[in-house]
Here is the input.
Amino acid sequence: MSKKSEILTIEPSNFFGSIHDERYTSTGHDCSYCNGRGYFTPRQVGHDEYEDNLCPVCGGTGRLKAEITIHWVSDSKEQKTNM
Here is the structure.
């Protein structure tokens, strides 16, 4: 089975003003719990009655997305001094 792979390079940009958050979304990933089907074998609830058995992870879509948030903050409390 093929896998989708993305690389996110994390580098601070030129901040004008205050430090901010960055958000990225990566879509189109097959659900690894149901293998992209979105469901499992229907459950029998009566003689000829069946109930859908949707995947609890993807909600029946078979797809997942990753929402990535990068929050930039100062790395240390020490300030650099000019020599």
